[in-house]
Amino acid sequence: MPKLRVQNLANLEVKVAEGQTLLKALQAQGTDWMHACGGKGRCTSCRIIVQQGMQNFAPLTAAELRYRERGRLKDNERLTCQCTLTGGEVTGIVPEQTKLPHISYSS
């Protein structure tokens, strides 16, 4: 089963089921993650900065492509509410701009 590791959340490991978005996997494990639009791909508040394993993601969704074209989603970022994994392991971090105030982030 694919796995997500979030480095600045004390190396949190999350198993991601086939077809499950990263946001749904994080929520299923009880992890709070910013998602201002409710996970509908209408903002970029749920993004993750991918540090390793970009090859393990499914192709960009229409929403992600739209934000890339507008310069609001960098090449090393994905929207957790939109993206799924095809296998392997992915490592990322929560961007500074979308950290939640009630969570302690590691460096």
Descriptive key words:
single chain; 107 residues; alpha+beta; Ubiquitin-like (UB roll); five-stranded mixed beta sheet; 14% helix
Relative helix content: 10-25%
Strand content: 15-25%
How many runs of DSSP E, i.e. beta strands? 5
Instruction: Calculate the mean pLDDT score and round it.
Output: 97
| Run of helices and strands | EEHEHEE
Radius of gyration: 12 Å
> How would you characterize the largest beta sheet?
5 strands, mixed
Q: What is the name of the CATH superfamily?
A: Beta-grasp domain
| Tertiary shape | globular
The number of distinct helices, counting runs of at least 4 residues, comes to 2
CATH topology: Ubiquitin-like (UB roll)
Number of structural domains: 1
Keywords: 2Fe-2S, Iron, Iron-sulfur, Metal-binding
InterPro entries: 2Fe-2S_ferredoxin-like_sf, 2Fe-2S_ferredoxin-type, Adrenodoxin-like, Beta-grasp_dom_sf
Protein name: 2Fe-2S iron-sulfur cluster-binding protein
Domain 2Fe-2S ferredoxin-type: 2-98
Structure notes:
The protein is of the alpha+beta class and 107 residues long. It has a single domain (3-98), classed as Beta-grasp domain (Ubiquitin-like (UB roll), Roll), CATH 3.10.20. It has helices at 22-28, 62-69, and strands at 3-6, 12-15, 47-52, 77-79, 89-93. The chain has a five-stranded mixed sheet, covered by helices on one side. Strand 1 (3-6) and strand 2 (12-15) form a beta hairpin. The model has no long low-confidence stretch (mean pLDDT 97).
